[in-house]
User: What shape does this take?
Amino acid sequence: MKKIGVGLLGLGTVGMGTYKVLKSQQTEMERKLGVELEIRKIAVKDPQEVADQVEDPGLLTDDWREVVGDDSVEIVIELMGGMEPAKTSILAALKAGKHVVTANKDLVAVAGRELLDAAAENKCDFLFEAAVAGGIPIIRPMKQCLLGNNITEIMGIVNGTTNFILTKMEQDGMEFQEALDLATELGYAEADPTADIEGLDAGRKVAIMASIGFHSRVVFDDVHIEGITKITSKDIQYAKEMGCTIKLLGVARCDEEGIEAYVCPMLIAGEHPLAAVSDSYNAVFLHGDAVENVMFYGRGAGSLPTASAVVGDVFDIARNIQHGCCGRISCSCYKELAIKKMENTKNSFFLRLLVEDKCGVVTAIAGAFAANQVSIAQIIQRQSKKGVAELVVITDSVKEGDLKKALETIKAQETTREISTVLRVYKAEKGETQ
Ligand code: NDP
Ligand code: HSE
Assistant: This one.
């Protein structure tokens, strides 16, 4: 039986999960692949600290170079995270003719092209299924099963921590901080949860998915990002009353004008399948011209779910090595499409305003909208206390730049006390559940 050597960089949450899944598959993998995968070296920061957690502590080293430089290692699995030394180690591995698997979305979202080019140059595989939505297969389906489609939209819930927080706010009436504390206690949120709650983690995943789905490079900086820190229980309550729920959505769309990509909290209709995705679960919904709508649902994070995707990539490479066909599916960005400015994107909006309860105030607000081509779908005066009324406005699908101008005018009106909430409302592509 041929043996293929594997090297691991990092033995944290996903690294340990990957180690366990590889070990648990030891006998099955031979029958599944016709080849045996053997872990030959593992780089960690402190070998002593993890020595009792691995079968063979002799494999541990505190230097990633020893893994990448080991002649018996054919596949390197990078699970240290962050930019460095992850990038340098991956480039060194590829240069040495080793195949690489990573879950590192931070790196792939900014340096994907460079890494894929290095893989192609060295006729190696560079796979990163786990970088988007953890255990949910999405990259391989887009690169292979759905390749016969022109994909026009990819959207979804791709951050488990924020979905957990919003679920707790909606279902248990928690305020943001209370829900975040619980997410931290349960181990969903990172020690520093900024990347989760500010939408950066989801933004990286959107950049990767859009690049693959639309065959045109989208990097992290191309994605407009807003987090969930300003969402209040009042917003959630109003959304509920309108038959909607608030989700942190990552949205990427492609049309003749180019690509739009953003992450932001949005209202989504209760009947949409994504509205039912709760707790720390993730789901990705995409629309292709042939397949119509496809939804992928599951665990977007966690040790074993993410390891499942990592090991799937490793097995794929083992098959390629067996059949002498590595580098078969490489960079698929053969187009150079424009990235749309956010002000040119179109959405329906949910607005909450505090205004003086006086005659003519609503007319003045409606006038500001009309002067900027913002069509109103609904306007409701919710309540009036001490001469201040709360107005809820839902717009039709309008250009974001036009809405901004209208809101600037409204803000400057003497009778406006506060623009409390501005949230986009997700409207489905043709054929999706509204
Ligand atoms: P962890 O922080 O749990 O694990 C990373 C490990 O790598 C730590 O043990 C760290 O050691 C070690 N490490 C860091 N630098 C070095 C180095 N120079 N040499 C050797 N070891 C090093 O992170 P995760 O396992 O959660 O994440 C790993 C990757 O997977 C990241 O890219 C992440 O974005 C991605 N990912 C994670 C998911 C999850 O659910 N956790 C889901 C999907 C993707 P130390 O702790 O001492 O710093
Ligand atoms: N912190 C991420 C989440 C997991 O909450 O979804 C890693 O992608």
